[in-house]
Every structure is written in structure tokens, then in C-alpha cells.
# Entry
Amino acid sequence: MTAYDDLIAFDRETQALAQIAGRLGWDQETMMPRGSADQRGEEFAAIEGVLHARRTDPRVGEWLATAEAKDEVATAMLRQIRRSYDRAMKVPAKLAAEIAKVTSKSQGIWAEARSNNDFAAFTPTFKEVLRLKREEGAALANGGDIYDAMLDDYEPGAKAADLVAMFDAMRPRLVALREAVLAKPQPAGVTGTFDEVAQLKLSTLLAETFGYDMSRGRIDKAVHPFSSGSGNDVRITTRTAADDPFNCFYSTIHEVGHACYEQNIDQAYLLSPLGGGVSMGVHESQSRIYENQLGRSRAFTGWLFGKMRDAFGDFGIADEVAFYAAVNRVNRGYIRTEADELQYNLHVLLRFDLERALISGDLEIDDLEAAWNDRFEADFGYAVDKASNGVLQDVHWPVGLFGYFPTYSLGNVYAGNLHAALRKAVPNLDDDLSRGDLAAATGWLRDNLQQHGGLYEPRDTIRRAIRAEPTEAPLLDYLEAKFSDLYQL
Amino acid sequence: MTAYDDLIAFDRETQALAQIAGRLGWDQETMMPRGSADQRGEEFAAIEGVLHARRTDPRVGEWLATAEAKDEVATAMLRQIRRSYDRAMKVPAKLAAEIAKVTSKSQGIWAEARSNNDFAAFTPTFKEVLRLKREEGAALANGGDIYDAMLDDYEPGAKAADLVAMFDAMRPRLVALREAVLAKPQPAGVTGTFDEVAQLKLSTLLAETFGYDMSRGRIDKAVHPFSSGSGNDVRITTRTAADDPFNCFYSTIHEVGHACYEQNIDQAYLLSPLGGGVSMGVHESQSRIYENQLGRSRAFTGWLFGKMRDAFGDFGIADEVAFYAAVNRVNRGYIRTEADELQYNLHVLLRFDLERALISGDLEIDDLEAAWNDRFEADFGYAVDKASNGVLQDVHWPVGLFGYFPTYSLGNVYAGNLHAALRKAVPNLDDDLSRGDLAAATGWLRDNLQQHGGLYEPRDTIRRAIRAEPTEAPLLDYLEAKFSDLYQL
# Structure
């Protein structure tokens, strides 16, 4: 056994334990009896303790010091393990424990403040979270930029300056497009109530249509849709609303995008550091292209219209054209998670700018609500009515996730690039989509991106798939063309 | 922090990790996609590795050497931790790994041999399993009796010699009772098909009626009913058969007996070495008294008859008396898990005698099938027709579980003792049962036995509940009275 072999064998067990911890999270959201919460908290702490001990095990450092990579795959394995090890070693155990404790407590305080629309009730806790996360960021940055260090946790290699340039180019075009669309009359939405069993049945058909392998996954209901797990046990959740079947269907397709990425990674990387999606941004590119560029396309919605008519009869939409408009309706609204394809990125850009200002110290938490509301009105054209529709709407900051939001929009940008490349590679894509045939599209994504898992760095993963440098242009061009057509701009 | 505090804190994390491993097992039988089996195997191995490392951690030995117990509870905590540590330290890691490997492989070979009714196809593997388990038993026995050492894994403190005396006293009376009953005409069984949804609904009602706390548990379907977990997350499974609703109902009540034992342990023992059932035999006493002495009683079946009439209408049974006879019908059969209350222990006694002979070397595996068939015919009065109905029917030996079978009958004996004491403590029990009111019965079991968890040694746990020495007499008296009445002997 060489140092490399020892390291990989040790890491494989760590990966297996991380899968178990992930499945415990899945169980908590889907199966766990409500009276088990406290006990579950201790169980989580115990396995997180084991994982932390393994990630900072001195032997990992020793193996890394002498391990030699024989090929590209081995080089990538070592890179990933080194990144994880360096990251874990930089944060003092006491600080990590304090962050875990405070963020666990803060979630409840945030939830109560949100239900009372009282930002001030959350600010003392929020200041503590921010202080600790800045301290952690400083430890990770090691003299470099703190926000970049935070970003690196979710999108290795990304730099805030590059994202600023990209997002600054997007913002005016998105604001203008949004304004033009909302000046036009709204298309009709669906009407009536939609049987839950029928929704879930069609949801499963959609999952399989998009290539989700049910023999290595399962679909359950949960309050918040998510995808969980890697390799051969990748589970998704969805939700239903009686008056809005699109909530279920597009939640499912979105999560199937995440799940197929995990399922389609080369089996040779199973339980290795290459066996999961390479970054949040690349992950989101998969969920978004499945959901939006493919799932909300004119061609595919034509097929879906037929399936919905079969399942639900008349639901107030006359034909495929009206259905396409209903699926892509742009509504005024405050909530990021309910936003349409056009407005979604404006929500993210707002958070990105505010969180960078919080981390740099340019913005104080006491001024955050006003800053949020000013920015919202500037970009969306109307005022936030209450904190639960504004600064208190997302769980991310309360639990210490800074540097996470921009990966959503980066994922959308990457999806725009991938979509442009896919259209060139599969010229008759709309013919396929109009028959509900996703094989060529998802096959192209599998072969050109998904199979590689963590083999290449995130941006390089996209670059190799599209054979060009990723930019924001294809996403913006796509959105402008799509919504100009839909709203006759 | 004293050595005792350090030890308990460390053990608490180990207990939490053991709960996670248990829940992974639950997931495998209920939720896991079939394509995940290989990955799950690695996940199991990883967490078992963590648990083994913690159980043999040198610090545990050091803490045990100096830890001082201040009271009865602390004394019991140390006793349980010391037992687990000594047990883990006695078995060489190489042998433990070999056993894990061989028994994992042997299960598949056994399953195939069973489906081909070919015992000879399994004997080479079985010999290997037996050889390794005897080696392990010798390591555990440390010069003492190997079978007693094996028994100690499941029933701490029990001795084969005591069980032999007890079982030898039971066998002739059971054989005679069985013979007398089977000479009589059989009562009618239920007819028709029973809707699965309605079965599961009544199954849940039964679980709650027997005191199962659904806010700290859940019921799912599985091929084999089981109970899993301790403390505030104790889950059970059941199964359904369209033509046999009793399969579902009594599986549920049986597992609820196990689960309530776990749920009713003093919350002060949560995630401690006292926070689980104290032995297999005591556990089985709870499942059996719930299922048989309470669930199959004349009084309770009267209530159940009404519930079944409400749920299913007419199912071929005219009244409560006929229903009581149908529930307790004694059938000829080969399979232990399908056996009724009367014959069940004869199945166990057969296995107990044969496995002791295998371990002592008095019986060779090559002669096992013939020995099984001879003994079966002697006790049951007819010949085994095929190996899957005989020596190949149970998974226990193929996976190396020797010393486990007798705990089933010990549990039945204990249930007999508890039932006699319960009848004295709750004189109007039948009134309660006839109204479907289990509160007094299960409350008595909770207060006198279940709450103690691992505080007392197994036999002492029973002794304290019944305030006498447990013997086989009450079970035999109960069975003879019940079946004499039912079959008019």
C-alpha cells in the first residue's frame, strides 16, 4: 500500500460516513417522527464529530505530504482531499463548535422574528452569527479576501470580483426586461383544483422522462423540495399545492436536475472525492437547465399540456400556446423561491451585493433592512410590505451561509451557456422535446458534463462542456428572446 | 470532569452513532432503492468500523479502570459499558472481520440453497461459519463454556444448563398438549379478502391502543416485521396478506410490544447504556405478552371482533366465541415464524438442542439435516417434507447467530410469569380488555419492568416485576388452560 492508496481507502470510509449523515438529513425532512427532534440533534452532532475528526486526522496530512498521483484522476482526487483537509485545519475546533451552536439556535429565533415581521428581534443573534462567520472567513482567507474565502466553500476558485463584473452586466438588462414585461397584460393562469395523487403520478412520470433512475432513488414529499445523496442512492423530494400543479412539477424537474447530475457521475468515482457534483454553481446549472431551458420551453410545455389534459381534464387553458404563457407567467412578488426565470436573478444580485457589504463592514446589520428595501424598490419598482417578504425571507444568513447566494445566479449563467451549446449539438432538440423525449438533451449533459463529477475544477467543467469561456450573454439573450416573444415586446 | 463523566460522555456519542446505524438498517428494509445495495454495504461497513473503534478505544479501558460509581444507576452504567468493552476486546479484529465477511457471503448461499431445497449446497459455507463462530465463542469464553459465552451476547447471565432444565420440563407437556389439540376438529378460519388500506388503518389503531407513541415512532411495511431504535425514535414495520388479516394485526401488536419497551424506558437513560431493552429474552417477553396473553385473550379478541366487523363487514365468523377460536387456531405446519402460541416453543427447543450439539461437537453439520428431521417428527408427529420447511428455514445459523434461539422461549416463559403477576395486580383486566382498554396492563408493565431499561440484570428485571423467581410453570399452566378450553380437551 502506498500513501496514496492508504489515503484513498481512508477517504472512502469518510465519504461513506458523509453519505450516512446526508441520509439522516433526508430522514429528518421526510420520515422522522416529530418527537425525535432532540435525540436526532445529538445523533447529528455525533456523526458530524466523527466526520470532523476524520477530516482533520493527522494521518491525512501525512499521507498528503507523500502521496503521488499517477494520472489525471489521481491528481484530482488529491486536490479535492487536500482542499477539504486544508479547509478543516484552518478553522479552530472551538470556533467551529461555537458556530454550530449559535447557528443552530439562531434558526429558531429567525423563524419567530419572521413570523412577527420583526427584524429588530433578530438583529442581536444575527450580529453574533455574522461576527463568528467573519472570524471563520478570516481564518479561511489567511490574509486574503474574506468573502472570496467564503465563496470558495461553495464554488471553489470563484472570485467575487469576477462575479461583480458578470452580475453588474446582467442587472440593467434584467431590470429593463422585467419592467417591459410587467407593463404588458398578464396571460391567464390555470384554474380549479388538482388532485394530489394525480399530481404525484405525473411528477414521477416527469422525473423518469428527464432520466431520473428510480431504481437508485426515490421521491417523497417534504416542505422544501431538495435532492440528497450521491452515487447510487440519490433521493429527491417534491411538494404539492392543490391550486398550483406547476409548483410540484417544476420542483420535481429542478430536483431531478440535481439528482441526475449525481446519478450520472462515472461509477468509477463512487464514494471518492470525485463522486459528487463539483460545486453549487455547476449543480444549479443542471437543475436550472432541466427546469427552465428544457422544462419551460415551448416545445416541452406542448407535450406537458397533453399530459395534464389527460390527468386533470379542463383546467382553464385552451391550447398549447396559452399553456406556454401560463407556465412562464411573470408575476409581481417579493419571494425569491417563488420567482420566475426572469426575475430570479434580480433577487440573488440584491443578496450578493448586501452580503458582501455586510462581510466587508460597509453595511451594518442595523442598516440592513433599510438597505434591502431601498434596493428592492430600485430593482423591482415597488416597496417591500413586511420583513417576512423582505430581509427575513431566507434561512441562509440566519444559519451562516454567506457566499452561497451567488452560486444560484452563476448556475443560471452556466445553464445559459450549456443551453446554447446543447442547441448546436442537438439541432432537432425541439422535435424531441415536443414528444417528451429528453434522451438526447440529458445524454449530452451526461456525456459532456455530469459524468466528470469532481474531476475538473468548476469553471473548467463548464468550459470543457461548452468548449468556450462561460459568459452571461447567452442567458440574457435567451431570456430577452423568450420573454419578448411571450409578451410581444 | 471525572473519569466517569468522560466515559459516559464518550459512550453517549457511541450510543448516538449506534442509533444511526440502526436507522440505516431500518431504511434498508423500508425505503432504500434496490439499486443502492452495494453502496449501502460500504456505508454499513464504515459506520460499523467507527463503532468497533470506539468500543475498543484504549481510553475506554483507562476510564473503566478508574471510574467510580456514586449510585445504583452509575454502577449499572459501568457494568454495561464494561461488558461491551470486554466483549469487544476479547475478539481479535482479524477474526471479527473474517466473520463479517463470511456471514455476509453465506446469507446469499443459504438463500439459494433454501430455494433449491438443497442442504448439501450450503454445508461447505455453513461449516466455515460454524468454525469461525466456535473460534469466536472460545475467545469469548476464555476457558469457560463456549455456548454459554455465545448465549451471553443475547441474554447476559443466562446459562445453558438452566435453560436445559427449564426446556426439558416444558417439552413433554407441550408435546402432549399439541397432540391432544390436533386430534380435535379445527375451528373455522376467516374467509374472503381484506382490503390492505383498511388492514393498515386498523393496525395503526391497534398500535395506539397498546400504547405505541406515534409521535416518537412510525409504522411502515416491510417483508419481515421488526422494531428498530431506542428512546424517542422507535419505528416498527408490519406486513399484510390479503386473505389473512391476523398476520398484519398480530405482527403489529408483537412489534409494538418491543417498541413500547424501548419508548417507555426512563428518559433519564436516553442514549446511555441503560437506554435500551436489557436482553433479547426480556424484550421478547414484552412482545409476546402484548401479542399473546393480552392480544389473543378471549376478552380482547371480543373487542377486536367488533372492530373487524366495522372495517370489513362479514368475514365468515359468526360471533366472538368463534372469532376467539379462529384467532387461536392450531394448525399443522413446519415453519417457526408461522407457528401459534402452543407450538412455537417446540420449534425453539428443537433448535436449542441442535445448536448446542453443533457447538459442542456432538453433532456434525453433515448429520444436521437428519437430526433435525428426526427430532421434528418426534415432537410434531409428522415428517419434514423439504429442507426449506426444515433445517434451511431460518436465517439465524447462516449468519452466525448461535445462542439466539433460546431467548425466544425464555421470553415466552417470562411473559407467562408477567401475565400471572399482572392478573393479580389488575383483577378486572378482562373488563378492560373487552373494552379495548390496555392502559392498566401496559401501565403495569411500564412501571414494573419497561422503565428500568438496562438498570437491572435480565433475570433480576423479571424477578423485580413479578416479585418471585421466574419459572416455566405459569406459561404451561396458561397454555394448558387456554387450549383445553378452546378445544374442549
Chain A touches chain B through 38 residues (CB under 8 Å).
